[in-house]
């Protein structure tokens, strides 16, 4: 027979066609020994999963369109955030005790417009170029802030000098292997002091589709999702860095967004496209903070009294338990 002519299976005119091998139901892609074949099969499996998910989504949409107003309400997807374990320190907006504490705490003069924020931004000893540029850009975000590069001067000596020069807050940017990795925020003159782990730092030149340099207008401040007593304290510390009367003509906004105890900082400018449409343009820098400790008073690593310390082995037992 010619090569192009085929023969029916089982007619005895040629070898039978090989049957397709079916994997058993318990077969796993990880059992394939060949790395390239395993990767290929995994990609095919992922592609099939996406097709099935998309087909199910289209089917449900058609069913909802057919039912019209009688369609059942959409199910709320389960996320770690909305499955959060209830925290007994969650603040009620109408709680009189919380209102009294906030009216008499260290930040009350700022919220009563009796104190104008004045910030000193400094670094760890002998910072490298990336940390220096980050401090300079942070100073353009926070109004009335000044950058000081310390060389071997201890923080215990810097703090009295800051108080004598009427600084209200001290920000220290720490680095490791030339990368900013920590932030210490101390409210002067009596504290408190918060220590954060810093990650995902992006300078302005590293942000895609960034806007022009920020102006000197006082920005708006947005604090999202700081719901517990600890979260309120941290949120008030961030708010006290900015003047209480923003200049809306500058269209600039600084956002501290708390999600799963990670604080994401973004700096944007509003872009009014029309009377109804508003866009935002990121100016930078951006970074992420994770609270490590909250200390009473000013910075004191040896004899300081801590209000809260993050203990991983004791506090991170549940993925749905958050503290801010």
Automatic annotation (TrEMBL):
One of its GO terms (cellular component) is preribosome, large subunit precursor. It is found in: Nucleus, Nucleolus. It comes from the Eukaryota. The keyword Zinc-finger does not apply. Its main location: nucleus. Residues 1-23, 48-75 are annotated as: Disordered. GO terms for biological process: maturation of 5.8S rRNA; maturation of LSU-rRNA. The keyword Translocase does not apply. Residues 63-72 have a biased composition (Basic and acidic residues). Residues 117-300 form the Brix domain. GO terms for molecular function: rRNA primary transcript binding. Keywords: Ribosome biogenesis, rRNA processing. May be required for ribosome biogenesis. This is Ribosome production factor 1. It comes from Nicator chloris.
